[in-house]
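Reopening: structure tokens for the C2E complex, inputs below.
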Amino acid sequence: MDAELVLLELRRGGLEVDWRVVDERESLESALGSFVPDVVLSDYTMPLLDGWTAMQVARSRLPSIPFLFVSGSIGEERATEALRAGATDCIPKHALGRLSPAVLRALSEAEQSRRRREAEAALRERDERYALAAAGSSGGIWDWDLLAGRIYLAPRWNELLGSTGGATVATFDDWLALVHPDDRETFVRLVELHRRGDTPVLEVELRLRHRSGSFVWVLCRGLASRGANGEAKRMAGSITDVSDLRRALEQLLKNARTDSLTGLPNRQRFLDRVTHALDLTHRLPEFRAAVLLVDLDRFTLLNEALGLSAGDRVLATTAQRLAGAVSSHDLVARLGEDSFGVLLEQVNEPSEARARASGLLAALAEPFFVAARTVVAGASIGIVEDVRPYGEAEDVLRDAETAVARAKRLGRGRWSVFDPRVRGELSSRYVLRTDLKRAIERHELALEFQPIASLVDGTLVGCEALVRWQHPEQGPVSPAVFVPLAEEEGLVSRLGELVLEDACRIAHGWSGSGIGPITLSVNVSAVQFRSSDVARAVSAALEASGLRPDCLQIELTEGAVMEDPEAAARSLRALRDLGVGISLDDFGTGYSSLAQLKRFPITSLKIDRSFISDLPGNAESAAIARAVLSMAESLQLGVVAEGIESDEQRSALVGWGCRYGQGFLIGRPMPPEDFLARARRWA
Ligand code: C2E
Ligand code: MG
Ligand code: MG
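Re-run output (same inputs, fresh job):
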């Protein structure tokens, strides 16, 4: 009856009701299991159920559903208690007119609080997510109050930049001070653009100073939040350490493995393959590999004469010809502008590499048809016949380069095999480095002197000091090996000073011991010449020894003076001002022209022994020797021919007007005492 009345009242209030009526605890519980009401209305005193229990059951099952008492018996006091215990409202039975408004109000409040709860939950979830993200992110969060000019930097910033401490508050200037000078301008510009709203996000890669002084690459991202007028009030974002990524990327770029012009593998890939081959040769005794370095002879000239695109055609065609001339398990790669590498695997005989080189030379000697012309580029090849003794691919290449340089010196269009004896024990190069340092410090290097004589009348006119190193375990090491090592190790200036001091002291000691005045020649390496004050070292050595300046001559290679002609001319003048002579060593192997030489205060030339060794038979060498001689004459320079080993060579040179010579025919390099004895008996 009561329920009917209530329903009637609700309908009258305009509510459409779907309802269930229960009158005991069990039926209440089972109804709540299958039917979810928007509101529960209950009497306070009922025959089988009391209102208090009903409220507790309803509240525990559906905590957010409004629960109203509609009762005639509840009384003021109980009603207050019920409201305090969780009832939504109490409507007396005699005032049922208030029921509908009360139910409507309860429903709308329930709806509101449901929404609020949802919003709160969403907010809580977002906060948690943000906190999680911030904690889990490898990036440093920053939050910049643009109006106050304060930036909050999360603790991770300190971690990234090697400092200790937690979160920091900084200014933009503080931040900027951390940015690499080269990145500042871009960074400021991008921040400003985003602040003005010209970019959707701030995104920039920049370097931040690490406490150690190095820089860390970071990706900085940020987003501004704006007021109603569009003005940015706040900007927040993160920085992420991308150093590893950067490094990986750089490596990737470096490893980009193909040369785009020729489609051949590039240097890096070639080195990788050589490394792999080295590995195999070390593990499999029967595995042999050889490396050929192919260098075009006239490429620079062609490029200049016919233009770059013709040059590109020549390179592409060269690549095709090389690839066509090797077998399928060999590798052809482009190593430099006009140099190519060939890795020959499975070579059975050392001579096989030479035969292959000849084949490649023949393929490249064929004319190229470019720019409507027929041109011949020609090539020289350096060969490392057996890679077994090597530990590093780079070392193989370097020796192949040495061999190619020799092939070019010997007249181009030919191959030359790297002679491992030149370099001594290859695998012990590392040991040599450390030993060399000690040898220099302990003064363990010795000097030998090789006579220089007149080819016309045989008189002794001078000697060249040649440095020697007797390695305690490895025996004699050639200066052709350890001088370059000293250059690489930054030891060459010290080495050079020691040689100068000793040579001057020894030579001065000879005066008055029965030999006429002779000139002492001392070699100065290109690196020493460029990196230190040679004139000062020379004048110190002269002063310490008492040797007359006009008895000393400094030997330099073309490379030493050609790299920076201006600076070289100054240093050479300083030497000449001291009164010492200057001789250009190994002349003919570089590419100096007459006109260039005129600028330098040089007193003599030494014709490189590679042009002497195949005299008089080799027409090309003969032509070069004669050209050098006539050129020297016109410049009034003295000429010494190096490496004279036979009488035929000597007479040919004399015939062409060469007056001085040096070589095994005249005398081998010898220790100072022997040289003195020999000089006394001279003539
Ligand atoms: P270089 O200045 O051209 O010295 C001449 C080289 O030719 C010496 O080799 C000498 O022993 C060798 N030689 C002389 N006559 C003959 C010959 O008839 N036949 C042959 N086959 N060889 C001959 P070495 O002593 O092995 O020196 C090689 C290079 O090392 C020198 O070439 C020079 O560039 C450098 N070097 C030697 N001593 C010094 C030094 O004290 N300081 C510097 N910076 N370099 C040095
Ligand atoms: Mg020399
Ligand atoms: Mg020389």
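The domain at 259-419 is CATH 3.30.70.270 (Alpha-Beta Plaits). The mean pLDDT is 87. Marking as resolved unless the reporter disagrees.
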